[in-house]
Every structure is written in C-alpha cells, then in structure tokens.
C-alpha cells in the first residue's frame, strides 16, 4: 500500500503537465486550420440573423490545442452585398458606406477531418 501512494502522487503531478490545455500558435495556412475557418464562417452565416452573408477578411490569431485537433481562431468578418443563398461569397463585394459592417469573432472548432466532421465548441462575435 505504501508503494501505491508515491505512484498516485506522481500521476497527479504528471497528468496536468502532460495534458496541458495550452493553445499553440500555428500557421494560418495549415490544411486542417483552413478547413476549420471555412466551417466556422459557414456556420456563422447559417445562424447569424442577417439577410446578407459575411466573409473572411483577416485571420488575427491561429492556434491549435496541444495534442488535439481543436483550433482557436480570431477572425475579422465583413458583411457582403450578397445574400446567404448566393454561391460565390469569396468574390462578393463588401458593403460600403453607412451599411458597412465588420465583426471580430473568436471560434473554437474541434476537427475530425478523417470523418469529415467539425464541431463548433464556442463562438463570440462583436461588431467593430
């Protein structure tokens, strides 16, 4: 019994260090990150109560949670003149003048690309 106590104590000390929830900076052009950004913007357009679609303007932060495929991203989105039903949002012009809207958004996405599955774990957006 006495030998089990140091082993358990060692595991308690080791587990938080090995299973750190820290996000690490990654390149914004990595394959899985790009897929997660596309998923986040698509999901945002589906649920945001606006008739016009938003598109990606800028990636402010790109990170991956250590030992996982969970990605944290800070994105700047701009409102387009296209509706959500339009197909080519990448080439759709942005709203201009008093109608112009930009948002700063943070998304956390869990990717399972081998199953073509993506899950939005958290999202927050604020208007600029």
UniProtKB/TrEMBL annotation:
It holds the Pfam family Cystatin. GO terms for cellular component: extracellular region. One of its GO terms (molecular function) is cysteine-type endopeptidase inhibitor activity. It is found in: Secreted. Residues 1-21 form the signal peptide. SMART domains: CY. InterPro entries: Cystatin_dom (IPR000010), Cystatin_sf (IPR046350), Cystatin_spermatogenesis (IPR052333). It comes from the Eukaryota. Residues 7-126 form the Cystatin domain. Keywords: Disulfide bond, Protease inhibitor, Secreted, Signal, Thiol protease inhibitor. The keyword Disulfide bond applies. Belongs to the cystatin family. PANTHER family: CYSTATIN-12, CYSTATIN-12-RELATED. This is Probable cystatin-15. It comes from Mustela putorius furo (European domestic ferret). The gene is LOC101676505.
